[in-house]
């Protein structure tokens, strides 16, 4: 399951820029990867783990701005159309899961 965090935060004042930087840093600390400007994603192996991460994101929300969290399945993620300029590329692969025997 993929969890996306998309945000539009104000950066007009030094305090707002600080809040933006702290939020972005904390997303990275939670294991999110930047896909695009203000769009971060993380692959999680189960819905339960995704819900736990969503709770943690809610705990670090900045006081202003708009934040959206979207959860999609791996199959839905694979259907994403990705373009770099006019060239189409495949979407990112989920990380390999450790297999224990």
Automatic annotation (TrEMBL):
Q: What does this protein do?
A: CRISPR (clustered regularly interspaced short palindromic repeat), is an adaptive immune system that provides protection against mobile genetic elements (viruses, transposable elements and conjugative plasmids). CRISPR clusters contain sequences complementary to antecedent mobile elements and target invading nucleic acids. CRISPR clusters are transcribed and processed into CRISPR RNA (crRNA). Functions as a ssRNA-specific endoribonuclease. Involved in the integration of spacer DNA into the CRISPR cassette.
Homology family: Belongs to the CRISPR-associated endoribonuclease Cas2 protein family.
Q: Which InterPro entries match?
A: CRISPR_associated_Cas2, Virulence_VapD/CRISPR_Cas2
Q: Which gene encodes it?
A: cas2
NCBIfam families found in the cross-reference section = cas2
Q: Which cofactor does it need?
A: Mg(2+)
**What GO biological process, any one, is recorded here?**
defense response to virus
Enzyme class of the recorded protein, top EC level: hydrolase
Q: Which organism is it from?
A: Sumerlaea chitinivorans
* Enzyme Commission code: 3.1.-.-
User: Can you name this protein?
Assistant: CRISPR-associated endoribonuclease Cas2
Top-level taxon in the UniProt lineage: Bacteria
Give one Pfam family, short name only.
CRISPR_Cas2
Q: Where does Mg(2+) bind?
A: 8
Q: Which HAMAP family match?
A: Cas2 (MF_01471)
Quaternary structure annotation from Swiss-Prot or TrEMBL: Homodimer, forms a heterotetramer with a Cas1 homodimer.
């Amino acid at each position: 399951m993929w969890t996306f965090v998309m945000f539009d935060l104000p950066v007009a004042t030094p305090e707002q820029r600080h809040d933006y930087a702290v939020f972005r840093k904390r997303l990275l600390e939670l294991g999110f990867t930047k896909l695009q400007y203000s769009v971060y994603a993380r692959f999680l192996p189960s819905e339960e783990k995704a819900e736990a991460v969503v709770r943690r994101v809610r705990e670090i929300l900045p006081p202003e701005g708009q934040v959206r969290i979207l959860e999609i399945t791996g199959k839905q993620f694979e259907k994403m159309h990705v373009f770099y300029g006019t060239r189409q590329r495949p979407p990112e692969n989920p990380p390999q899961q450790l297999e224990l025997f």
